[in-house]
Write a structure and sequence with these properties.
Elements lengths: L5 H16 L6 H13 L7 H24 L8 H7 L15 H8 L4 E9 L2 E10 L3 E7 L10 H4 E8 L2 E2 L14 E4 L5 E7 L12 E10 L6 E8 L6 E3 L3 E5 L2 E10 L4 E9 L13 E6 L4 E2 L1 E9 L4 E8 L8 E9 L19 E3 L5 E4 L5
Antiparallel strand pairs: 1-2, 2-3, 3-7, 4-5, 4-8, 6-7, 8-9, 10-12, 11-12, 12-13, 13-17, 14-15, 14-18, 16-17, 18-19, 18-20
Helix pairs in contact: 1-3, 2-3
Length: 378
Amino acid sequence: MSTRSKLEDKELEQLERLIRETPIEIDLVNRTMNKYESSRYTKQSESSRTSKKMRQKVMMITASAAMIFSLLFITSLISPTMAATIKEVPLLSSIFKFAGDLGLKTADEKGLATQLHTSVTHDGFTLNVTEVVYDGTRVSIAIKRPHIEDEKETLMERISNIELFINDAPVKSFAPDNSNSIGIMMHPGKDEDSAIIEFADLRNQGGRPFPEQFDLTLSTTITGIQDPLIIDIPVKNKIEDYVTLQSNVSRQYDNIHFTVEKITLTPITTGITTRMVLTDNSTFTLPLLSMGIDIIDDQGHKIELIGGNGWNATNGSIHISDLRYHPFESVPKTITLKPYIHLFDENEMGAFQMDENNEPKIQYIPELEVTLPINSQK
């Protein structure tokens, strides 16, 4: 049940409307008053006394909007209820909160993300880093640009290259001593002016783990701008509540030996490390090369896949996967891993068979299914 009064709701609606309609880089009072004055003449004329009161009221509300902008991050001056309400206003809200990633939304809500106000400008283009989160499994960085009217390309489309450095060392130096490399991914943010850059270590595939705290340097190339934009970002693992299970439970089906090596549960990510060996020393090909895994808890809830890294060793007869999923809402009693393969179109090489919802068809491999108990030990 909402604890806000109708009057407070009405005031917040007025505030949000003013914030949406009034850019903060110019005088809020004059801008709002001009809008009011221009629209006033289309309505029936009122008495000067009523007009004066209305002008004073608009100026007071507009000044309040300006004050909220300047005091937004001084949380001690704003009540928890009001602060939470203000965060719902899209212009002020976290990119993580509205990006569609349950783990990043949880990080925002639980204060596990580090809020930043770092920016760099080249040739009239400004890039901002607003927040970063690291849970020991993945690093996610929220970036945005100021909105420009009639901009034809999204922020993601403007980015042509990304390089990362951890404590001045290239991120690739943390990868294993083989052809496997640390992938840098980019996901949509909350709108066309924002995006999320994400990467994870390969400690489960022979790479070095990232430090618990480090200085990250982001170098990104923007189309149409000659010099890269470089921003330094402090990164720290704030997660204390996590569960790690070294399971090493295996299943065998035909020439496939499937092992669940490690499971890590954090409030932000569910990480699953698996090893698949072809016992006849053959090489992975489709459809096994595209094998996926559904993760289901003891209540029958399936969590969504975020991404992952895979690597074929020994000329392709061993496949190691680090898969990252959304977090569970609470630590489950058990989880079930259900490996599956995609079904491919016989008439078109490499094309999936699609179902009635235009989703790729899959086929589970029940012989490789694994159910594991999860304890709460860290």
